[in-house]
Each structure stands twice: as C-alpha cells, then as structure tokens.
Amino acid sequence: MKTSSRIAVLFGCLAVAHAASLGAAAAGGDRPDYAAERAARAQGLTQPYGWLSLTALEWLKPGVTTVGSAAGNTLVLAGAPDHLATFEQKGGKVTVTACAPSLTFHGRPLAAGTLLGSGEGDDSALASGRLRLWVIDRGGQRYLRVKDPEAPTLRQFHGLSWYPPDEHLRVTARWIPDAPPHVLHVTNEIGQVSTASIPGHVEFELNGAKQTLIPIEADAKDGLWFVFRDQTYLQTTYGGGRFLTTDVPSNGLGHPGTVVLDFNEAVNPPCAYSPFATCPLAPREARLPVAVPAGEKRYAK
C-alpha cells in the first residue's frame, strides 16, 4: 500500500505501510499464504539498511550539530571518523559546513557548504564507510537518521513471533463514509501531533459485538491504513499499536461498501524494534476494547 499525505510523511512509516500490506485481500478472497508473507516480513526487516539497522536519531536544533566517533561531538557515532561532519540548521535548512573526506553523496565526496534536502529514500542518503545518514523532516523539524548494518539490533535479531492464523479474525467490515470527514489527531513516538481528514470508518463484528475503527489514512487508489491497538497489548502485543492495511472499499471511499480486515496480517511499527524510529501511536478512535489475538506479537528484545 502506498500512502502519500502529510500524516504519512510526518511519521515516516511509508515502507512499513507497504510491508504491512503483505498479501492483504488476496485475489478473489482466497486465504493468503501467511507463512510466505511472514518469511518475507522477516527478510525485509533484516536487510542491511532496514529498520533494524537504525542506530541514531538526532534532532538538528537551530545552530550547529557535530557528528563523529570522538567524545565531545553532539552525536557520538560508532563506526564514524573522529569528526565526520558538522551540520548547521538555520530556518529549517540544513547545510554541511565541514566534513571528513569519507562522507559521500551518490558516490562522490561531499563538499562543505552543501545544502541538504530531507528525502528518505536510498538516493537521499549520505554515506561514510558502512554508515548511511539521512536528514529527515518530522513536523517541520529536522532530524539526522543513521543506519548501520553492524547495528546490535540487526546482528542480534532472533526472529519474529506471530499468533497462529485464525480465519475468524479475517473479517469483512462495512465501510461507512462520514460527512463531514472525521478530523483525526495522531501523536507520534516523539510527541508530535498531526491531523488528518478521514472520509469514513469501518464497522465489524468480533465475538458477537460491534467494533469500530478509523484509519489514519484513506486513499482512493491504495486503500486504508490502520494503526490500531487492542487488549492484547496488555500482555502479548506492542503497546503503541500495530499496522494493518487493506484494499480500497468495494464501492470506493465515497459510498458505503465492504472491505476485508485480515488481522492475521497486522504487523509491528518500526518503534517496536528500535528507539530511533518515529511511529504513529494508535489514536483514541482506533483502540479496540476487545482482544484480537492475531498477527505479529511483541518483539522480545
């Protein structure tokens, strides 16, 4: 699933939203191949520069931030030269004012005075040896994100834990458009709040009781993105909530219809594995009063 609104950009969880799609809503309503999906999920997380390789998230405050392995830097970074780079943030713009020869961009040495953008793809990364660095935007603030394929979280990965698939937790929900759209307030892991206009909600039955969920993203082409929490968070699932994506409702976003919610495909956000991620927390409107024992369980660190 692809999300493109400002709320998805703020939380920087686009790649996870894609991963959360896994095999959601298999063709013709067929049962997904959960074993294959879950193997692909683990493979994606353990890529050299996947979410498990995060090693730093540093707020680039107005003024100067120094980065390197030597004590005294603002961000002391293992695996970097003593003095890797000096970043200056002024008026929301970030410039590299000094850098080691090892710091490159697109394979070429980075020149002092370079103004940096805030992209999050591979083509926006700075490199120094095995390290990759990005300047990212969160709520109008700039942060430095660092990934390292030698990160302890990646080297010590010991597998994911899942509930056994349960066909009763693959449910057909009713999509109900809302007029006017619902204004959703979503807080992320670092305390920032974003708002989104959501054109509807879903209703479904679980254990004989009606449940309601509002997605944090609804796209006419790509479908729905939920960040939900249920009562399993008390013991077995991640407390901040889990991600679930779906197809577009059967009659589009503007008309009543149906949509499959396969809770067996619920996955953890990056913050379940790393303290250096910025993920949306399940909003009040997406906290279920019942347990949903399906999908990915809490990661045992």
The main sheet comes to: 6 strands, antiparallel
Overall structural class, as computed from helix and strand content, comes to mainly beta
> What multimeric state do the chains show?
single chain
The helical percent reads under 10%
Counting H and I runs of at least 4 residues, what is the number of helices? 4
Order of helices and strands: HHHEEEEEEEEEEEHEEEEEEE
Segments where pLDDT lies below 50 for 5+ residues?
A: 1-11, 17-28
Portion in strands: 35-45%
Query: Could you give the distance between the termini?
Result: 28 Å
Average pLDDT over all residues: 91
- The total beta strand count reads 18
Give the count of structural domains: 2
* Rg, Cα atoms, Å: 21 Å
What spatial form do the alpha-carbon principal axes imply?
A: elongated
Widest β-sheet, arrangement of strands: 1-11-10-9-6-7
Ordered list of secondary-structure elements with their pairings:
Blueprint: H1 6-11, H2 14-21, H3 34-45, E1 54-59, E2 63-68, E3 75-76, E4 85-90, E5 93-99, E6 104-105, E7 108-109, E8 114-116, E9 126-128, E10 131-138, E11 141-147, H4 152-155, E12 170-187, E13 193-206, E14 209-213, E15 217-219, E16 223-228, E17 242-245, E18 257-262
TL;DR?
With 301 residues, this protein is mainly beta.
Description:
The chain has a 6-stranded antiparallel β-sheet with strand order 1-11-10-9-6-7. It has 2 domains: 169 residues, no CATH class; 104 residues, Sandwich (Tumour Suppressor Smad4), CATH 2.60.200. The chain has 4 helices and 18 strands. The protein has 301 residues and is mainly β. Helix content is 10%, strand content 36%. The protein starts with 5 loop residues before the first helix and ends in a 39-residue tail after the last strand.
